[in-house]
Every structure is written in structure tokens, then in C-alpha cells.
């Protein structure tokens, strides 16, 4: 995706130092970064919301911050697809994608939870944990997200196609953001057309608001511990399946398509509940599945025994790729030395 060095222009032939990038995948990757940056900024503005901008309040800032994390996931999925479609995949693109993921899926969820806790400290029900105990848990999440992405880059060429080693950082961020969106109370009524729809939506909103009031404080107290668990899962060797590949790749049955469409409809209608169930269910599925196969090794899939190894250094790869030299016959002249390879020169 990028080239550094002195490049000559075709018209006048004058050399200049430039950075050549493929614009389309780079812009998609930067969209991921900007969504993460926007999520951080809005979470930090929760205590002083921009009231002159569509009458935003603190809860609106936190809710939009969580939605921007999901928007970053969309860009994170699209940048790889766009790079393959335009045949512009490169090491530069992979490194840039990981740097953007650290911001969007590492720093942004931790800032969002910290902003919610700081906002709760100013209410009549203060947070029961001291800040010096909450901060290390959130810092551990950020550090483990960076470690997870660095390990993924190292094992990208030798990793398995069917599963990840450790909880993916977008999945961990989805667990946090979905729970934050679920428990944040809504301060605005929905505006719809007919009277019956207004009554139905009002009944649904009242049910959701009552549920949010019941689960808000317990979930918020458990959020730092959940982020600590997610931090541990990201750096472990727990196997997590590639959900996108299993759901969308290859030829599927008509029933599979119907179930997928029904899930999308339910997510559009009740995104607060469905996103929390989907992401946290994915987290629990990988953990329970790993524990089950550890206690019952006979049912463990054979492909799980293949460990991802970092690629060999260039010197070792060149040495292993060199053809064997047959021993010379007695009295025969010695063969001339082979020309040095790029790794040896």
C-alpha cells in the first residue's frame, strides 16, 4: 500500500521524496481511526455535553460514542475487503490497520467505561469502587488489546483460517460497547406516525427503560471486571471462530439465509439487546468451548492442535530453501562456489 524512497515522475523525470499509497483502502482504514477518535471525544464530553449541538446531553454523548465503536468495526471489515478487491494488500496496510484498531478497539472502549463511571460518581448513587482500583483494570484492557494486535501481525502469515488465537479485539470492544448502549437510559421519546404506532413504541420504550433502570448500576459495577476478563482472553490461546467466514463464505442453504435475515431484522428492531447478546454470547461461547475441549481431549478438533508459529527469519528460510549439494567424487575437481543469495549478501 505504500512505498518510501526517491521516485521519478514520468513527465519531467525530476526525483522527489514521496509516500505512495493506494487511496481507497487507506481512506477506509482512516475511517476506522476517525470513528475511534470521535468515540473518545464524545465520551470525554459527557460531563460537559455540547448543548448547542442538537441539544445533546450526557447520555446522548455516551450512546453515540458506543455507536461509533460499532461504526469503526464496519470500516475494519471493509478495509480488508476493499484492499483485496483493488489488489492493494500490503504489509503497510496491515500495520496501519492494527494501529487504528488500538485506538478504536483498545483506547475508545476504556475511555467510554471510564466516562460512565465518572458520570456516576456525581449522582446520588456513587460508584462503590475507588478510582485507583478501576483505573488499572481499564489500563490492562488497553495494554492487552495492543499486545493482541501485535501478536496477530506476527502470526498473520502462519495463523489458522478457521479460528483466532485469543479473543479478537473488535469482539472485545463489541462486548463493552454493546453493554454500555444497553444500560444507558434514553431521555428522548421516539417520534413516529400513526397513533397506534406511538402507543406501541411508547410501551416498548417504557419496558426498555424499566429494564435499564434495574440493570444499569449492577452492570456498571461489573464492567471493570468484565474488561479485565476480556483483557486476559485477548492474550490467551483460547480458540475463537471466524464468525464472518462461517456465516458468509461458501455456499449456504436457504434455511441458513432465512435465519441470518431474521437475526438482522431483530438486530434492527432491538439493537440494544441483540448486540449485547451476540457479542457477549460470542465471548462466552469461545471460553466454554475451550474449557470443554480441555476437560474432554478426545472431542478436541484435530485442527486445534496446529499452533501458530512466527515466520522464519530470512536467513533460516534461505538456508532451508537451498538445494542439497551432492558430495564430489574422489579425484574430481571441486565445484565452483554458488553465488550468494540476498539473505547472505
What would your notes on this structure say?
This protein is mainly alpha-helical. It has a single domain (23-242, 271-299), classed as Four Helix Bundle (Hemerythrin (Met), subunit A) (Up-down Bundle). It is built from ten helices and four strands. The protein has helices spanning 23-44, 58-85, 91-120, 131-154, 169-183, 195-235, 243-248, 254-269, 271-295, 314-321, and strands at residues 2-8, 15-21, 163-165, 239-241. It has a two-stranded antiparallel ribbon with strand order 1-2. Strand 1 and strand 2 (15-21) form a beta hairpin. Helix 2 packs antiparallel against helix 3 (91-120), helix 3 runs parallel beside helix 5 (169-183) and helix 5 (169-183) packs across helix 9.
List the helices and strands and how they pair.
Layout: E1 2-8, E2 15-21, H1 23-44, H2 58-85, H3 91-120, H4 131-154, E3 163-165, H5 169-183, H6 195-235, E4 239-241, H7 243-248, H8 254-269, H9 271-295, H10 314-321
Antiparallel strand pairs: 1-2, 3-4
Question: Key terms for this structure?
Answer:
6% strand; 345 residues; Four Helix Bundle (Hemerythrin (Met), subunit A); disordered C terminus; 62% helix; 10 helices; mainly alpha; two-stranded antiparallel ribbon; two-stranded antiparallel sheet; disordered N terminus
Radius of gyration: 26 Å
Q: Please, how many helices?
A: 10
CATH architect. name:
Up-down Bundle
Structural class: mainly alpha
Count of DSSP strands: 4
Could you tell me the mean pLDDT? 75
How is the biggest beta sheet arranged? 2 strands, antiparallel
Uncertain stretches of 5 or more adjacent residues:
1-10, 188-204, 340-345
The proportion of residues in beta strands is 5-15%
Strand order of the largest sheet: 1-2
Q: Return the domain count.
A: 1
Question: Which H/E pattern describes the elements?
Answer: EEHHHHEHHEHHHH
User: Which class in CATH terms?
Assistant: Mainly Alpha
End-to-end separation: 27 Å
Helical percent range?
Answer: 55-70%
Q: What's the CATH topology name?
A: Four Helix Bundle (Hemerythrin (Met), subunit A)
Any idea what the shape is?
A: globular
Amino acid at each position: 500500500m505504500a512505498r518510501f524512497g526517491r521516485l521519478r515522475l514520468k513527465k519531467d523525470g525530476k526525483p522527489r521524496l514521496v509516500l505512495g499509497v493506494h487511496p481507497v483502502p487507506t481512506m477506509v482504514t482512516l475511517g476506522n481511526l476517525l470513528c475511534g477518535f470521535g468515540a473518545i471525544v464524545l465520551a470525554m464530553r459527557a460531563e460537559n455535553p455540547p448543548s448547542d449541538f442538537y441539544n445533546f446531553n450526557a447520555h446522548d454523548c455516551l450512546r453515540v460514542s458506543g455507536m461509533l465503536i460499532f461504526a469503526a468495526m464496519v470500516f475494519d471489515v471493509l478495509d480488508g475487503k476493499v484492499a483485496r478487491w483493488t489488489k492493494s494488500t500490503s504489509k503497510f496496510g496491515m500495520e496501519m490497520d492494527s494501529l487504528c484498531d488500538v485506538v478504536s478497539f483498545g483506547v475508545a472502549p476504556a475511555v467510554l467505561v471510564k466516562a460512565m463511571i465518572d458520570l456516576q460518581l456525581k449522582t446520588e448513587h456513587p460508584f462503590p469502587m475507588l478510582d485507583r482500583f478501576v483505573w488499572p483494570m481499564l489500563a490492562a484492557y488497553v495494554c492487552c488489546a495492543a499486545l493482541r494486535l501485535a501478536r496477530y501481525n506476527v502470526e498473520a502469515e502462519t495463523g489458522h483460517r478457521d479460528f483466532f488465537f485469543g479473543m479478537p479485539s473488535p469482539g472485545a470492544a463489541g462486548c463493552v460497547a454493546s453493554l454500555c448502549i444497553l444500560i444507558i437510559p434514553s431521555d428522548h421519546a421516539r417520534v413516529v406516525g400513526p397513533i397506534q404506532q406511538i402507543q406501541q413504541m411508547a410501551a416498548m420504550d417504557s419496558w426498555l427503560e424499566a429494564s435499564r433502570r434495574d440493570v444499569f448500576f449492577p452492570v456498571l459495577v461489573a464492567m471493570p471486571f468484565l474488561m479485565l476478563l476480556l483483557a486476559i482472553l485477548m492474550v490467551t490461546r483460547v480458540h475463537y471462530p471466524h464468525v464472518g467466514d462461517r456465516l458468509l463464505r461458501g455456499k449456504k442453504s436457504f434455511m441458513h439465509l432465512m435465519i441470518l435475515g431474521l437475526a438482522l431484522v431483530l438486530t434492527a428492531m432491538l439493537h440494544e439487546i441483540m448486540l449485547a447478546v451476540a457479542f457477549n454470547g460470542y465471548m462466552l461461547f469461545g471460553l466454554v468451548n475451550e474449557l470443554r475441549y480441555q476437560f474432554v481431549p478426545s472431542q478436541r478438533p484435530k485442527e486445534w492442535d496446529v499452533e501458530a508459529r512466527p515466520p522464519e527469519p530470512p536467513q533460516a528460510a534461505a538456508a532451508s530453501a537451498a538445494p542439497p549439494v551432492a558430495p564430489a567424487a574422489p579425484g574430481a575437481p571441486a565445484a565452483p562456489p554458488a553465488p550468494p543469495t540476498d539473505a547472505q549478501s
